[in-house]
Specification:
This protein has 16 helices and nine strands. By secondary structure, the chain is α/β, with parallel strands linked by helices. The protein has a seven-stranded parallel β-sheet with strand order 7-6-5-4-3-8-9, with helices on both faces. The chain has a two-stranded antiparallel ribbon with strand order 1-2. α1 runs antiparallel to α2. The longest helix is centred in the N-terminal third of the chain and has 29 residues. It is globular.
């Protein structure tokens, strides 16, 4: 292929960016004007899919990879060194300015990244030693027994006795401990994913983790469609599906879209979670769905909370994001995070919704998500995982 002249390079990139931004804004305006109905979301997805395809074709024609690092201007080596030094110096035990953190991380992610196998093994060893996700992430018939009193993770003064009926609901062994997880993606639900064209890159991973049953069908261009492990907050079942006490078809239809993914729930975190979690399991079985419900083991969550508290992370509870990022650090050979951005705007000041799939306004967290985000940023700097924010082109 003949080399592209600099002027042509600039023109194609500018045109590509203009096409992408125009289509993205059309989709955003349409969603605001028409609401979030099924039809408008289908149109939005088609518009963004076309934009992503156009960008990829144009960049391929320039003999460039579709990676954003190859398109965006690199920071100077000195600037990267300064950013990394500043971010590494931040501590979970001291206050920091969230806006500065947001700007510094966004700039740092333009610096070259390289996986560090030694650091990767360090985190894997630390997670294995403290918490052992292979054996303790999920309640199984190997780590729980009939007659045992399970102590609730967030209510240590309460416990529940494991009956024969309950024991039979637990898997015999952990469904993920024997898996060879080479490349993993943990996909958050931040609106930072909107217009990112990251779906194709996400789906190239061997194992994909998602949170709180996000819709997939009309968001594949940005968020992908692959899923192997997905959390369900009991509050979603209670509020959106009336605790599964009445008609359950809507819930069954939603869960069918996740195929044979494992549904992981905090069954034994709070006493109020137990009944609704098992209702989810019964519903999956009654509708003959391929997915299975499993429960976070409270011992694993307790040990994990103690570990991160020892590192300076003070929070009422860890987010499900950090819980599963921690597990993935132990279980996966390589790990990339997408859709993690705990701020109400992006680094350019564009206002963001709470999730990429709705228009719910951003709100403050119960969890210490900005501090958790700092952790991810520092792990990225270490080369233990890759934190991806922004477009995947």
């Amino acid at each position: 292929m003949r080399p592209v002249k600099p002027l042509a390079w600039v023109l194609v990139v500018c045109v590509s960016a203009t096409v992408y931004y125009t289509v993205y804004r059309m989709a955003q305006l349409q969603r605001q004007e028409l609401g979030i109905g099924k039809r408008s979301e289908e149109v939005r997805e088609k518009l963004l899919k076309d934009a992503c395809t156009t960008l990829t074709k144009n960049l391929t024609a320039l003999s460039l990879t579709t990676k954003s690092e190859e398109v965006r201007e690199k920071l100077s080596k000195d600037a990267c060194t300064t950013l990394i030094k500043n971010l590494t110096a931040l501590s979970l035990t001291t206050k920091f300015d969230e806006k500065t953190l947001m700007q510094d991380v966004a700039a740092m992610l333009r610096c070259p990244w390289q996986e560090d196998k030694e650091k990767n093994n360090h985190y894997r060893s630390a997670m294995k030693q403290c918490c052992n996700a292979s054996d303790w992430l999920i309640v199984t018939q190997e780590n729980a027994h009939i007659g045992q009193n399970i102590v609730y993770e967030a209510e240590p003064n309460k416990k529940i006795n494991v009956t024969m009926e309950m024991f039979n609901l637990f898997p015999k062994t952990s469904p993920i401990s024997s898996k060879s997880l080479k490349s993993c993606a943990v996909v958050g639900s931040s609106d930072i994913l909107s217009g990112s064209c990251c779906g194709r890159e996400i789906d190239q991973n061997d194992f994909v983790i998602r949170f709180n049953v996000p819709p997939l069908l009309n968001y594949t261009s940005d968020a992908g469609r692959k899923v192997h492990l997905i959390t369900v907050n009991p509050s979603i079942v209670i509020e959106r599906f009336r605790n599964l006490n009445h008609r359950r078809k809507a819930f069954g239809d939603m869960m069918q879209s996740y195929g044979d993914a494992l549904i992981i729930m905090p069954t034994f975190s709070y006493q109020r979670n137990t009944e609704v979690s098992f209702k989810v399991q019964y519903t999956l079985e009654d509708f003959g769905l391929a997915s299975k419900m499993v429960s976070f083991h409270p011992v694993y969550l307790q040990k994990l909370a103690e570990y991160w508290k020892g590192k300076g992370l003070e929070a009422l509870r860890l987010s499900s994001g950090l819980m599963l990022v921690s597990a993935a650090l132990e279980l996966c050979d390589t790990l990339t995070l997408y859709g993690f951005w705990p701020f109400s705007t992006d680094w350019k000041g564009r206002e963001l919704s709470y999730h990429y799939y709705d228009q719910v306004k951003f709100e403050r967290f119960v969890h210490a998500m900005p501090m958790e985000f700092l952790l991810y940023s520092q792990m990225h700097i270490d080369g233990a995982l890759r934190l991806h924010v922004g477009p995947c082109f």
